[in-house]
Amino acid sequence: MDSLRNGQKKDKKRNVAIFIHNGVEVLDFSGPSEVFASTEGFNVYTVSLSKDPIISQGFIKIIPNYSLADCPKPDIVVLPGGQTGPFIENKTLIAWIKASAQDAEVMLSVCTGAGLLAKAGLLDGKQATTFHNYIDNLQNATPKAKILRNTRFVDNGQVITTAGVSAGIDGALHVVAKLKGLAVATQTARYMEYDKWKPNEGLVVEQPTKVAAARK
């Protein structure tokens, strides 16, 4: 890991807030955590509703670094899935997501974490994806969005959604490639021995501003 980090350009670290909650799917948050923590330039921390321990996968106890009330301002927000149902109606959480989206570079959901983005209104008018068993539910809950099947990740610019569980690794690597270049992301994937990664496997939605600029 030292050689990996020493070979990368030093710059100001981006804050990566990974929201965890009781019932969170372990790979949904640990996969992106590994990606960002293994790449130079990211300050990774967990945040939850409070600093009380949460239980992942029914047996892993985790103490969050911060609560929503005191966490550093995030540049990147990661919203993992799992048992997200009880949290979609949490007004404090949804307000935090909306507020974070005002300035964050990236809002990344994994699996059913897309439901939190939807509740915050961040999927309206966009294409998105999620865990294959949650697609119909998310589509019904978000009629103004188009929820795609058989898609590893969907990049709408600031808002990026991924399919389930291991797809969060692909989404996080895509974010690294987007912010720091494909060579850095490839180096991180190689360090992780994540041989499955295919950089072009997801959908990158062309942004209207870029389309307009190209036509001038």
UniProtKB/TrEMBL annotation:
Alphabetical list of InterPro entries matching this protein: Class_I_gatase-like, DJ-1/PfpI, INH-QAR
* Coiled-coil regions, chain positions: none
SUPFAM superfamilies given in the database record: Class I glutamine amidotransferase-like (SSF52317)
All copies of the DJ-1/PfpI domain together span 15-177
- Which Pfam families does UniProt cross-reference here? DJ-1_PfpI
One GO BP: regulation of DNA-templated transcription
Protein name from the UniProt record: DJ-1/PfpI family protein
Q: What species does this protein belong to?
A: Spirosoma arboris
